[in-house]
Amino acid sequence: MIRISRRTLLQITGFGAACVAMVPRIAFAARNSLLSLRTGVQPGGRTRLVIETESRPSYSLSYPENQLVVTVSNMPANSGIKPTLASGTLIKNVSQVQSGDRLQIVADLRKPIAEIQKSQIMILEPNGDNGYRLVLDFMAGTSAATVAASASVNAGETKTSSSRKYTIVIDAGHGGKDPGCIGKGGTKEKTVVLSVAKKLKTKLDADGFKTYLTRSDDIYLKLADRAAIGEKRHADLFISLHANANPSRTMKGFSVYTLSEKASDEEAQKLAETENAADKIDVNGFEQFSKDIRIALSSLQQHAVAEMSEEYATACVRAFRRAGIDQQPGANVRHAPFAVLRSSVPSALIELGHLSNAGEEKLLKSDAHQTKLVNAIVRSIKNYDFDV
After folding, report:
1. Residue 66 belongs to what domain range?
2. Residues 280-302: what's their mean pLDDT?
3. Distance CA 38, CA 73 (A)
């Protein structure tokens, strides 16, 4: 699979750089710099390639036969950098090829590899003497060269071109004895979000996704049980649907949240406190490794999941705005410690609007507006890059 240009992943704290699609020619002094290249062997026999840079890298991946090519934007070659190659990896040699303003880092492989999954790609922040580190983990597998053409993305095209069915878990918030917020006209949050969830499932099923609802009727579920359903279904994406309330009756608009231990603002913190009780993140799947390795892998997994969640949330906001749906004033993507989002699945919580606003309450219970919301969410999912 050939990617066009990878969006710079945003961090769980909400700080990040803008996407770099095309970089103008500028003086080398203002460019990114290559600091080191190294390989290693990870638990489970995975090969690791680490590309250390002075600034956060904007990059793309391609897979010629028996090669992995990492193209980094706005970076000159550095002949003084000699790669440190560990024994026992799939990488025979690493070289640098200048292509205009881009540097191609070419890893010659002993065996073909499959497309590197998004969960196996990380950008680590500077730490001590280390700069930014682009970390790629992979194993031998079916070559991706034969499917490269299917990944081309043109304006207006969706990105979900793979034949694999992606699994989406849709969580309708509240339910049963927990009605959620209630509008002045008596509209209950639990009723609105369940209606939207069912419409969303129908639409996604028709578009070739594999979808599951955490609840399909008016029942109460604990937050941890909702997150567990995403894990059990091996979801590629978990979306929790809610409707908001605000002391100000004039406040309106949607908002999108991702998980963070530190809320992005006071309102986000209050909303999280309303939606859930505190819960400790528990990441499973590393039991075969030693305690120290489990801690390291858990941390890296959480880092990668946070970046993927942020990427989806950003795409979701964009889709809502393009659909002409009002957005709540404030940050595009907000962050708070929502218990329902605590898992190893990329996830986002969407507040569809404000039931405390009389006009928006009428919209939220209308079939036409619910369909408009669903179409925007579907568009955001189809434009989300599941494969990288």
Report:
1. 28-151
2. 44
3. 19
